[in-house]
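Observation: inputs received (chain + zinc ion).
Thought: call the complex predictor directly.
Action: predict_structure
Action Input:
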Amino acid sequence: MKKKKKLGAVEALQKAKGSPTVAARLMGIPRTTFYSRLSGEIVDNPDWRKRRKMIPKDLSAITSAVRAGLPTKTERERLGDFKILMLDIETSPHKGWFWKLHDENISINQLIDSSRPLCFAAKYYGADKSDVRFHAEWIDGQKNMLRAAHDLLSEADAVITQNGERFDFPVLNWYFLKNNMSPPRPYKSIDLIKTTRSRFRGASTKLDYVARELGYKGKIEHEGFPLWEKVMAGDPAAQERFQDYNIGDTLLLEPIYRRYRPWIRNHPNVAAFNGLDEPACPTCGSVNLQADSWTLLQTTRRAQYTCKDCGTFLRERNEKDMLPRTRVVF
Ligand SMILES: [Zn+2]
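Observation:
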């Protein structure tokens, strides 16, 4: 009697229309074993170019992430203890004497008052809108406001900002230093402007522009510079408008971050502490993966997957795949 041909991982995947869970069931093996078989078949096979074509390509992850604006309950649960903070600060302008309206270099001795943080708004990604934190010089006093920022930064695993690496973080750090505070506990930065600059080329890298182009409401309108004047003069109505504006900016980070996720380079690995022994998406923690052929490394190929929940591409990290296969000559 002729022995029945064993189903290969790539074939199983094709039958399962790309779903690793169904494919593993078809082969009668656990999902983790399936992943390593697939990885072996894809990386080892001399016919890999043909095999890549055989793997169904699915763009639904990207479209479903694109459709919705705010993180779902499941998404929040997947993050577990991984805390992603969204933060935005507002500062006062420099104040000084100057001679000309254009092209003037203002020296330090012309400076009366230098820029300082006035307030900040922060919220954990996925937390309820009512959980937004707002601290201001006129509410808490400068030192307590800085302490609140220091505490939040120290508690966060990652911090989402718009231009935080060049602005918000160094401004806060300078004031931490001036107030004899130690550095906040290290956190990973997710600066959205870096993704805007490096992955896209729209007309502007401003948050307001990006938000509107992606179909969200932009920043809250305000009267411009006179608002700062009124806020610093202690006008309570202006301070309230300023608060709304600051909170609005912070909340705007959330849907944009969510849309940006699969494009963000060096995203911190949120699955690092999930305790699962199967591959999970480093960006959103989902185990709902779609096998997607391979990715090229410097000297070898590795099995590649897409996250069906956020659209991130991820690759097999198994070191054992590195050894004999590094000798593949293309
Ligand atoms: Zn994901």
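Thought: report the result.
Final Answer: The domain at 56-100+108-263 is CATH 3.30.420.10 (Nucleotidyltransferase; domain 5). Residues 281, 283-284, 286, 307, 309-310, 312 surround zinc ion (CB under 6 Å).
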